[in-house]
Amino acid sequence: MKLLIVEDEPKIRALLSSYFEGHGHEVLTTESGEEALTLLQQHKPALILLDLSLKGKLTGRDVLRETMQRVPESKIVVVTGLVEASEEEFRKLGASGLLRKPIELDALSQLLRQVGGEPPASA
To answer: If pLDDT is split at 50, 70 and 90, which confidence band does 123 have?
Structure first.
């Protein structure tokens, strides 16, 4: 499966990328909302992990809205450290789920199974 990780914190981006590559996925990464939209158009990833608090012209909310307009069938998991972030709010905008920082890999695996993005366990 092809994934797009949109995260402005290098350590988190590297952790997520390593995790998914270790499960056999093709991973694209960016720290920019603008580049995320370009990668979305070029590569059509099956799943997008989107940091809510991006630096730059486009916020995570902007990228979420724009993605749902361009590719409404996209599966997007919003990643945030904001306590006040509401999963219901992001589901209304089109997100498939919400993952809170600090990221726990067990919680990530569980959420991905729910949205259909987790590979079967290795034998």
So the answer is: very low
Q: What pLDDT is stored for residue 54 in this prediction? A: 92
Strand segments, DSSP code E, in the chain are: 2-6, 26-30, 47-51, 75-80, 97-100
pTM above 0.85, yes or no: yes
The domains of the chain, with CATH numbers, are 2-115 (3.40.50.2300)
Q: What is the DSSP letter of 18?
A: H
Given a contact cutoff of 8 angstroms between Cβ atoms, the answer to whether 39 and 63 are in contact is no
- Write the CA distances from 82 to 25, 31, 116, integer angstroms: 28, 18, 25
For the record, the structure tokens of 49 come out as: 């992990």
